[in-house]
Amino acid sequence: MSPEHQSILVADDDPDIRDLVVFKLQQAGYEVRAVEDGTAALSALEDGIPDVVVLDVMMPGLSGLDVLRQIRATDRLSGVKVVLLTARARDTDVDDGYNTGADDYVTKPFSPRELLHRVNTLLGRGR
Amino acid sequence: MAAQTVVSAPLLSWVLWVLVWAAILLIATVLGSRAGRLWREHRDAQLLGELRPAMLEVASGEDDDASALHRLTAVPAHRVPVVDRAVSAMLSKVRGEPARALARVLEAHGRAQWAIRGLSSHSAVHRAHAAWTLGLMRARETAPRLVPLLQDRSADVVVAAARALALLGDGSAARAVLRAVAPRRRPRGLPSWVAVESLCAFDDSAAPVIEAATLHPNSAVRHVAATVIGARPLLGAAPVVRERLAEETDPRTLAAFVEALGRVGGPRDLPVLSRFARHRDETVALAAVESLERLGLASSVAALAPLVADPRPRLAERAAVALTELGPAGRDRLRDVVAAEGSAALPANYALQLTAMRSAGHGVD
């Protein structure tokens, strides 16, 4: 499937990071939607199922891990890949992320190029 | 007889007028400053709005021909402060080549010179801001100028300098960071977690200094060194950690060494960790249980199993959870404990249920 037909949902309360991730992924040809918190992310998932969700962990209201739990508990979202993008870099935080069902874990400060590679890999686009 | 105070009507009226005018002036000042701030934010947003695509292009690493970088560096003087604020904010969020490109924007605007001058400012806020700016710019050659700030009279400046040095990654500052944890002239040192964060970010030249700090007379410094050895991890420091375990008297630091051994040690450390898992200080015992789990050896099961019956509930639960992480052998041992229905059945059952919840759908038995 070409990247134009693959969609990504980005949820981050930091407008700089949100805009940056959207810009990078759009440049790579993905359809990208962005929201600013966990509740809005769940609403966006009602509107359409993306191929990948890039989730910040620490957001006001519902955290990224809360959203991830909801995604993993919902059958129709079983095919959605989730990348956690977070400043929480301790081993235990990474373990929590993967144990909750994340497919990948990227820590901030981050390399936009590396994030794109990770998303490409999850979607089978390789390098 | 009580003295009677007489206030004339004109004086009272004058005082009231002064109070009313003072109140009006105060309200006008507050509203004026708020309006001014909103206007500045609006103006900054407008100024930045036109340049934001260029900043995103640079920050995302998509500026192959450096045209976006040129647009940011060539802004008129009145836009420079707005652009620099936005670039500094973005710099703290990205790493790699995009961070270096953003730093070039600040360099072109003379921020490095501004920051170097600011390090000796009378204002602690300016000194901290200047130090942080040099860190954000990854101006590694300025590390020697930041080191003296680790002994600054302001705690905020000390923290800013340590975090800036972490961004520079220059291991030659390790000794100064450790010294800041236990300063001679100030009552409070650099917070341990900031020191650990910095020392973990330094290059390998910091390793010998960190190892040597495990012998420091101050337990806070030894604690930081032990934590860093485990967190980096410094695999070559395993012999040092083994030696210190026999000598350490401070329980909190001992726990840090025990935890570090779980990260830098190996199978030969199983007996000593098993002994520490029965330590009378619960923090030390918990650290040993975690280390036994981290080593991930099948033989750890025998060391952890008796601890599920420990009278300290937290330790018993932690040992049971560690057993679940050691594969089928650990979980089978817990099932035996549950079947025996003794006092250890409660933590064993808790750990098995926790595993079942976590592994739902992941195919773990």
Automatic annotation (TrEMBL), chain A:
Domain Response regulatory stretches: 7-123
GO MF terms held by the record: phosphorelay response regulator activity; transcription cis-regulatory region binding
Residues that bear 4-aspartylphosphate: 56
Domain of life: Bacteria
Any matching Pfam family: Response_reg
InterPro entries registered for this protein in UniProt: CheY-like_superfamily (IPR011006), Sig_transdc_resp-reg_receiver (IPR001789), WalR-like (IPR039420)
GO cellular component annotations of the record: cytosol; protein-DNA complex
GO BP: regulation of DNA-templated transcription
Keyword Transcription regulation listed: yes
Keyword DNA-binding in record: yes
Keywords per UniProt: DNA-binding, Phosphoprotein, Transcription, Transcription regulation, Two-component regulatory system
Name used for this protein in its record: Response regulator
Species whose genome carries this gene: Kocuria tytonis
TrEMBL record, chain B:
Gene3D superfamilies: Leucine-rich Repeat Variant
Annotated protein name in UniProt: HEAT repeat domain-containing protein
InterPro entries: ARM-like, ARM-type_fold, PBS_lyase_HEAT
Highest classification ranks of the organism: Bacteria, Bacillati, Actinomycetota, Actinomycetes, Micrococcales
Transmembrane segments: 12-33
Keyword set, alphabetical order: Membrane, Transmembrane, Transmembrane helix
SMART domains to which the protein is assigned, alphabetical: EZ_HEAT
Source species, domain of life: Bacteria
